[in-house]
Amino acid sequence: MKKGFVYLVGAGPGRADLITVRGAEVLKTADCVIYDKLANPALLQFVSKNAEIIHVPKRIGEGSCTQDEINKVLAEKASAGKTVVRLKGGDPCIFGRVAEELAVLIEAGVDFEIVPGVTAAVAVSSYSGIMLTDREYSSQVTFVTGRESPGKTDTNIDWEVLAKFPGTIVFYMGMGTLDSTARQLIDNGKPADTPAAIIANTTFPNQRVVRAPLERINEECEKQKIKPPAIVVIGAAAASDIRFDWFTKRPLFGRSVVVTRDIPGNADFAAKIVRRGGNPLKFETIRIKDLTDSNDFLRTLTKIGQYDWVVFTSGNGVTTFFDALKSLGKDARVFGSAKVAAIGGRTAERLSEFGIKADFVPGVFTSRELGKQLIGFTNLQNKKILLLRSKLASNELLEILAGAGAQVDNVAVYTAIAAKSDSAWLVEGIGEGAIDWLTFASPSSVDGFFEQIGSEAVNSGNVRGASIGPVTSERLKELGITVDVMAKEHTLDGLLDAIEEAGK
After folding, report:
1. Strand 230-234 and strand 168-172: pairing?
2. Are 28 and 136 in contact (CB under 8 A)?
3. Residues 320, 290: contact at Cβ < 8 Å?
4. Of 397, 416, 435, which residue is a domain's last?
């Protein structure tokens, strides 16, 4: 039997893209992933579809797991010959109880590797601009647990020494004991006006920072209703220059933006929102159905090199086409001498990933402009043009090109079909005013959305609507939905630019 192996991987402080390269690499090899509450579930994107996923939240109440139960599962899966990833929030060796898990593995004769992660204190410093060390005010930093082992009669924390510590003190898991922590420090000699800061949900778009003197920090957190997970920073560092706080100044920080594409499309769009500091909420409205097994497509493929121009009007069309080529044992050489046109920059980028440089990209990314500008770019009289696009695409582009004397063949390589998602949370969020923007990137996503969410739920709330372009906007208006902003450049980045310009 294959010998099992365990990777104990630090998942980082929250954001999925802050995992280490090594951590993401070993996730791809896992037969089984055991992850805890503080590990971002988005990291499961790296995991094979065939891998077993086990959630082991350690919390109070129903559904929680004890450390002994986790140890048992870890040993059982590894002893069964599986490659196991134990995904732990932050860094495994910083208040992660990793020693207990290693002891079980060693006893079971299972080999292991520890993959470090970005610990919360380091992330807090980077994402809040609170410098834990500085040559002017702090040459040392100490990490302290705010929650010791239940049932302990003695404490390992020397409060007298800690109160005299001249550097920065960082408490992990310290929200529940914040009041007693402040009192212990003050009673043991720490000045009551010592700067303190609480950073909650670090690296996420709902990150919050509260600053106050040590004697008032708990009162201020209660007033602002700060909840765990949070890190406590005490010392001169907590009063560091607020201009260093770059994260909360990101253009979409604190705004919740619903993305309404297919699953891969939502993931791509969500990543763009995260980079701008926003909070993406994924709501699947469509699924892309491949149509390249049709006789029409297969016949066209045998003569594709005879066309003068091949036109792609979406990234989905490009991906579907080249996936079909690969499955048929073919590559880009099928184009022969045919030139290639792309509707916009993103579609051109997707083509470049397959080694094709678009010969023509219009300045405005719509089907109408693609047709009009291609006519201005070259003489299309009697030229043979192949459109590879969605089955749902309108005839506008075909008619414009045919009107210029071109011989146009239109072949559907994919279509969008409606998808069903859990919509209760979205309706509730809109009603409570917790969602700022709904975004729509195609008429099919509009239809898929409103088949699941009634227009009255949207119109009765304060949520705003953003459209990628005129065709999508027209479909929204037909349904009685207000279009608050429309992208000037009809791309996902253009859509986010429009939302940024609209302000809060």
Report:
1. antiparallel
2. no
3. yes
4. 416
Residue 432, token pair as written in the block: 């409570």
Q: Is residue 201 part of a domain?
A: yes
Domain carrying residue 447: 256-285+419-502
Does one domain contain both 293 and 410?
yes
Asked if the bond preceding 229 is cis, omega within 30° of 0, the reply is: yes
Residue 299: partners with Cβ closer than 8 Å, 6 or more residues away:
none
478 contacts: CB under 8 Å, gap ≥ 6: none
The candidate with the shortest Cα–Cα distance to 491, out of 479, 483, 499, is 499
Considering 98, 118, 138, which residue would you say is the last residue of a domain? 118
| pLDDT at residue 63, rounded to an integer | 56
Taking only Cα atoms into account, the Rg of the chain, rounded to an integer number of angstroms, comes to 28
Is there a contact between 338 and 301 (Cβ–Cβ < 8 Å)?
Answer: no
Q: Catalytic positions, please?
A: 36, 58, 173
**482 in the same domain as 424:** yes
- pLDDT at 152 (0 to 100): 58
Tell me if residue 53 falls in helix, strand or coil: strand
- CATH number for the domain harbouring residue 379: 3.40.50.10090
250: in domain: no
User: Does the residue 251 lie in any domain?
Assistant: no
Residues of the chain with pLDDT under 70: 1, 58-63, 148-153, 504
Nearest to 176 by CA among 211, 200, 153: 200
Q: Are residues 316 and 368 in the same domain?
A: yes
Name the β-bridge partners of 407.
Answer: 384
If asked whether residues 69 and 180 sit together in one domain, one would say no
Question: Which residue is it, tokens 């898929």?
Answer: 448
pLDDT in tens, 442-497: 999 999 999 999 898 898 778 999 999 999 999 999 999 999 999 999 999 999 99
Residue 468 lies in a domain: yes
Q: How many domains does the chain have?
A: 4
Distances in Å between the alpha carbon of 503 and those of 252, 423, 490?
9, 27, 19
Q: What is the pLDDT of residue 86?
A: 96
Dihedrals phi, psi of 402, to nearest 5 degrees: -65, -35
Same domain membership, residue 139 and residue 84: no
The confidence score (pLDDT) of residue 181 equals 95
Rounded CA-CA distance 288/480 in Å is: 26
Do 343 and 370 form a contact (C-beta atoms < 8 A)?
yes
